[in-house]
Structure to design on (394 residues):
C-alpha cells in the first residue's frame, strides 16, 4: 500500500501528459529506489528549467538568453522564417540538418472552438519581423490538420501584403509508408503535390 | 531546439523507467508550461518521498512511520501473512478488498544468475515472524515465472518446519482471457488447479 507522500508523488506524476495511474506508481516507486544524489539532480533540473528558460524576443522559441541560439547564430539565414506551432516542432526540423533559416513560434494553432483566436497567437510579432527585417520567404510548417490548415490560410492572407514568398511544407505519403493503407485525404494531397522527376 | 537546461531535464526524465527520449521531451516541455506553484509542488513531492518514506520494521513495506499502516492496523488479521516480491505488489492485492491479513515484502525473487541469492532477500525476517508471532498461514503471492516459482519452492521448504499452512495464489487463465490464445504453461496450470463447482 502506498504511503501518503508516495500517494502524493504518484498524483504528481499522474498529472503529467501521457502518464497514467499505473505508470505514475511505477515512476514514484522508482524515485524511492533512487539515491539522494539522483533525486537531487532531478530536482535541480526541474528548478533550472523554470528559472533559466525564457522565450526568445525574436522568434518566441525557448531560450536561456534574450535571443535563442538559432536567432543569435550569425550563420543562420535570416531571410527565411519557418513558422511552427510550438518550440517542440523545431527539434525534428533541426534534426534534418537541411534547414538553415530561422523560426517563428506561433504558440498554437487557430481553433476558435477551443478559444484560440488569432490574437492569442504570436502572429503580430511575425508580421513585425517580416515588415522590419529583410525577409524573402516564410515557410509554414504546421500540422496538416483542420486547425493547421486554417492557420496556414489565415497567415497566407496576411503575408500576401508583403513582397515575399509564402510556402507550405509538403504533405503526402510518409517515407516508408504504404499507399494501400493511406487515407483518402493524404492520397489526395500527395497527388495534388506531385513533383516532376 | 532545446536549451541546455531543457536538455538536462529531458535526460532526467529519460532516466526513469519506461520513459523514452520522445516522452521525456514531451514531459520536459510540459514542465516549462507548468506554473511555479505546480513545479514547486512536484519538487516537494519528490523531496518528501525521499525524506519521509522508510521501511516497515515488521514487513518491509514502505511506511512513513516505524510500522506500516497495515501492520499497525488492529483490524488486520496478524495470523495470515501474504508474501510478495515488493511493495508495489501490495497495491493490486489491497484493491481487491478481499485480503485482511498482513504482508511480507521479500524485496525481490531468487535469481542466482542476477546475483540475487536467498540471503539478499527478507527471508530471515519472515522466518522470525513465523517463529515469534502466532501465524497460521503464509500465502505466497509471487509472479508465476521461473524466479517466482523457485522462490516459492525455497520458502515452502523453510516454512515446512513450522506448524503452519503454506499456500500459493492460483495461476490460470486470467479473467476475461481467452483459452484459445492462452499459452500451454498457463493452460496446464489452469487444469492442475481446477476446482470443483
Amino acid at each position: 500500500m502506498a504511503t501518503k507522500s508516495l500517494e502524493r508523488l504518484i498524483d504528481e506524476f499522474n498529472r503529467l501528459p501521457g502518464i497514467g495511474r499505473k505508470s505514475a506508481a511505477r515512476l514514484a516507486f522508482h524515485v524511492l529506489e533512487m539515491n539522494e544524489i539522483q533525486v537531487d539532480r532531478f530536482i535541480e533540473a526541474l528548478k533550472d528549467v523554470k528559472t533559466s528558460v525564457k522565450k526568445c524576443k525574436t522568434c518566441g522559441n525557448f531560450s536561456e538568453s534574450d535571443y535563442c541560439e538559432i536567432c543569435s547564430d550569425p550563420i543562420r539565414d535570416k531571410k527565411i522564417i519557418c513558422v511552427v506551432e510550438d518550440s517542440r516542432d523545431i527539434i525534428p526540423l533541426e534534426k534534418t540538418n537541411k534547414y538553415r533559416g530561422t523560426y517563428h513560434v506561433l504558440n498554437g494553432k487557430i481553433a476558435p472552438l477551443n478559444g484560440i483566436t488569432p490574437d492569442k497567437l504570436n502572429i503580430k510579432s511575425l508580421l513585425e519581423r517580416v515588415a522590419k527585417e529583410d525577409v524573402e520567404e516564410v515557410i509554414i510548417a504546421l500540422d496538416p490538420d483542420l486547425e493547421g490548415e486554417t492557420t496556414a490560410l489565415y497567415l497566407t492572407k496576411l503575408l500576401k501584403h508583403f513582397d515575399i514568398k509564402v510556402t507550405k511544407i509538403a504533405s503526402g505519403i510518409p517515407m516508408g509508408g504504404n499507399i494501400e493503407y493511406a487515407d483518402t485525404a493524404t492520397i489526395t494531397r500527395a497527388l495534388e503535390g506531385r513533383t516532376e522527376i
Q: What stands out?
A: Chain B has a mean pLDDT of 89. Chain B touches chain A through 52 residues (CB under 8 Å). Strands of chain B lie at 54-55, 62-63, 77-84, 101-105, 137-141, 165-168.
